[in-house]
Design brief:
Layout lengths: L6 H9 L5 H11 L5 H11 L10 H23 L4 H23 L2 H11 L4 E5 L6 E4 L5 E4 L4 E5 L7 E12 L8 E5 L2 E5 L3 E6 L6 E7 L2 E5 L5 E4 L3 E6 L4 E6 L5 H5 L3 E8 H12 L2 E4 L7 E7 L4 H12 L1 E6 L2 E6 L4
Parallel strand pairs: 5-6, 15-18
Antiparallel strand pairs: 1-4, 2-3, 3-5, 4-5, 5-8, 6-7, 7-10, 8-9, 9-12, 10-11, 12-13, 14-16, 17-18
Helix pairs in contact: 1-2, 2-5, 3-4, 4-5
Length: 341
Amino acid sequence: MDHSLPIEDLFIKYLENRCSPEEIRLLLSHFDLTQNEEMLRSLIYASLDMDSASQEDPSVNSAVKDVRKNLLVAINKSNASKITRRHQLYRYAKIAAILFLLVSSTVLVKKHWQQIYNYFRPVNIEMALTARGERKIIQLTDGTKIWLSPSSSLKYPDQFNGKLREVKLEGEAFFEVAKDKTHPFIIHSGQMDTRVVGTSFMINAFKEQAKYTVTVVTGIVKVSSAKTQKQVVLLPNHRSEFTPADGSLISAYAANAIDMLKRKDGILTFDGTPVKVVALAFAQYYNVQIHVENKSENCLCYGEFDTRKPVNILLAQLAAAINARVVIQDNVYIIRGGCEE
């Protein structure tokens, strides 16, 4: 330790949490002296970028009084006790913690205030909901961007304070997660958890569906089943399938992963998808009722559909692709025939 270091610099070093135990002891011993009270007051004002001569703040007076009171009690107890050097350093560390909390909470140290405020204030949980036919884009405080598909919900904190960044998704969303290796990002979807650091991917996890899927466009994603504890690691152009009924989890190559970039903007691509699945997607996007008759529900659909166009245009495109026809009865779209006709 450099004993010639000015007390002003030592105080700043302490606020930045860079003091050694010996430096903390020197600092606390210094402020234990009555004649140095005004210096403590000046240092507090300086840390707030305030002029002590022109801005007399009652909170500073209170802080100085409380700091000195606590330090005098703590240091006197420490000097009176015959304890080992290790225990002395532990006591000084506790005194240092008292000083830091008093200064930061009572005086609102500007240099560190936003970080302190964010850490201690309660976290509020926000919820984004989309109706059928509605899409939303959500920007989180860490820079993560989320495209929420129709008929979906997302719960997320208004700030991330802990070691993990956690959200809850029901439905479908495309994620572009801001990279932060020290704070993994986790999406909870029922009993399926998706863990990433910084990547882009699509999650499809509607409650009414038999399977939840995660499709990776960039980066690496880890998906786990809370029911079976099984985990899979997905690379770009791979997807996982989670079955809520039994908790099973598998992974496979996904040749059409790039289509997820289009899907987040409302362009749906199908490659051999059963018509009943296509119809469900249309119903979610357009907030309409679509009924697929038994004969055509297992027909396979191939093609790209732009949901920015009216629903009747897309249904006509679908009907033409499977040789079916569309009729409307009581505001319900009915797909009849197809495949073999």
